[in-house]
Amino acid sequence: MKNYRLALYLGLSLASPSVFAQKKDTVTTDKEKSAKTDVSSKKTKKIDELIKKGTYKKGLFNTIQVKTDIYFEIPDSLIGRQFLVVNKLSQVPMQVNEAGLNKGMNYENKVISFHRDYVAKKIWVKTVIPQVSSPKNDVITKSVKDNFSESVIEVFDIEAQNTDSTSVAIKVNKVFDGNQKSFNDVLANVGLGGSVKSNLSYIESVKTFPQNLVVKSQLTTTVNEGGVDLPVTLGVTSNIVLLSKVPMDSRTDDSRVGFFSEKHWAFNDRQQRMDEKRFITRWRLEPKDEDKEKYLRGELVEPKKPIVYYIDPATPIQWRKKIIAGVYDWQAAFEKAGFKNAVIAKMPDENDTDFDIDDVRYSVITYAASPKSNAMGPSVVDPRSGEIIESDIIWWHNVMTSLQEWMRIQTGPIDPKARGNVFSDEHMGEAIRFVSSHEVGHTFGLKHNMGSSFAFPVESLRSKEFTDEMGGTAPSIMDYARYNYVAQPEDGVTAITPKIGLYDKYAIEWGYRWYSDAVSEKKALRSLIEKHQDDPTYFYGEQQSYLETIDPRSQSEDLGDDAMKASEYGMKNLKIVIDNLLKWTYEDGKKYTDAGKLYLGAIGQWDLYSGHVMANVGGVYLDHTVFGSNKKAYEAVPAETQKRAVDYLVKNAINLPEWLFFNPITEKTYPVKNSPMGPFEQTPYNLARGMQYGNLYSLFMDDRLLRMIENELKHQISGSKEEIYTVENLFEQVRGSIFNKKGSLTILEKMTQKNYVDALIVSVNKLFEKTAVKAIKIDKTLNIPTICNFQEEAQNLRNINYSSMKRVSEVTTYKRAELQKVLNLLNKSKNKGDDASRAHYADLIIRIKEALNK
């Protein structure tokens, strides 16, 4: 499946006149003039003749439809100009809907230009990735043009021309009806593959406007399910958008503020190396010419062109106002940037017959009827400058199931409104408002700020005064700081929903404040960052790979500056949820399936807490440092914090909470997981066993231990006397809690010892690539609700290599030594306890000896 991040191409420098890697079309040679005369002399078909036979519409390209044939009339004035092709899904059948593809998704963009060939009587279409620039008069510019040239993707015969030969008509059916993939390769880009069946596909409609053109098509293919070919028809919309002659002034990104950005390579004659930059993605927000002096004096002014969002008419009426409110919540942030009434949200005008949510003239919050529980906020970007041209927020109807589960589990103990099977429209509406604000933030160019919640001390989240003043769970709504699971029932906290905060206002000011010249801009932006760089409220923590978290400050779904303390409070509230789960989900005569799903969600919340804490073990605080900064780029989590983290894990994750897995709920339902085959019931013993194994395996993962060894090495070399937490400390702390009992063991105690030993054996074997363990996978997926996971934000994730050449690292030595220590303990206990315990000891001894080749 293609990533739906929509800014697919990269930006251009505007510091000086630039040339893009393309051929010029402005000079007509003598040969071309002669050919042009020849064309006229051969009495090529006139456009007027086509118009008489069909329907003629004026716009960017005038269009002519003759029966099923579609012609574009391309004027010479647009030859050589750059256009952005934007392809979107506009209709999907059930098979594709279930796969997570829905109306409104943009799956392919490309920059194209049209070139007229007078001799061959053709129009050539070329594409370019405009990420390279150079000053027009520099000598190197010739090399730039030759080394970053355009590619031909399509050719059309000239079918007709106007009277004075200043425009020509081309028949374009083949690029929109599926015969050619040059303009629209939908099947490859949505992951279906195969080819379009042209006899079952057709152009549905064509609309043309002054700055863009919209073509809708129905394209059919087949997919094979269980040996049976099933027809799949996709409704697709292709926009052809005229890009401005002069791109928007670009703003270079700074890694200390979280904006999406586009790469750019700049060349010039005076360089000693190529200048690689990144331009942030943002709307072109400027004061009106007559207001610029007022703006520079600090007065709030309205922008020349506000950012407007339309609400999909398919949106249920009761949610419209809340979604609109989520957009308007950003007004205060744009006021920090000097603009009033900068963002507008509204329903489309019923009298606007041209309104089309797939038309790039309209930024739309699209409502998708789908079982998928998600929302996302991508944008269409001018690749030359980073200018956001249009945004499409996709709002899946079923996202409310995730919102309800979060609220019931995280806030049910402190908020009676969040306990029932069905929430009031007002309560659900406030959750919808929060998600609306978050997704709209992405469409302004803002990335997730996973480090924001670390700014608030955990105890402050229990303070009604503090939470009322701050208005949320973190300084940024772009964090995944969901609801306040820290506050206890007796605290009286009511401000429990994420809100737009100080960081959001700061980031919008940094990205959108207008400056009259580049020099003052650069100085002011640097000053703004330096002013706040030591205040944790303005900290930006980038999203990390879900496979491995290095910096424990920047995590998804966490709260506060102390994961252990926050998770302890969370566990207290989670026990209240478990004690009341059957009561809160009661519905006379109904099966317990939904109760089982909520039960699994509660177990997932427990697992989130474990993950938040575990990230501190072997964790490293990562900061984006610059010359002149007094911060360290890499700083290991303090030893005491790591020890406290392991204490929490021993108490709450390795020694499983029996009240969570073995309780009266299991007399009515097991935890229930959704699957393609329907609800999947998971027995408590097997689920607990697998979850515990996953936690132990993650705790002893090679990368974590290598980071701890790296920190130990740094201290050895520097001679530092600072206390550090070592791999040996970790094993000793965990082993002491698991193998501290001799004699007869309970089933859970035996389970824990087996999991401990097996996690070590498997990880050692994997280092030496034993085929017997190659297929082992640790599956901890619980269908935990998530939203906004389209981004994954793989873009610009920080890559730090802690784990090369693991086989010759100290990791294997430590793990084998640990197995030997466990073996020694088992040998002392092997003849103690009941028969089942002695058999258990004997089994583990055999396993360890085989692993150590004894």
TrEMBL record:
GO molecular function, one term: metallopeptidase activity
Signal peptide: 1-21
Residue ranges the record marks as coiled coil: none
Assigned keywords, A-Z: Hydrolase, Metalloprotease, Protease, Signal
Domain DUF5118: residue ranges: 45-92
Entries under CDD domains matching the protein: ZnMc_MMP_like_2 (cd04276)
Segments forming domain DUF5117: 104-288
One Pfam family here: DUF5117
Domain EcxA zinc-binding, residue spans: 421-742
Protein name per its UniProtKB record: Zinc-dependent metalloprotease
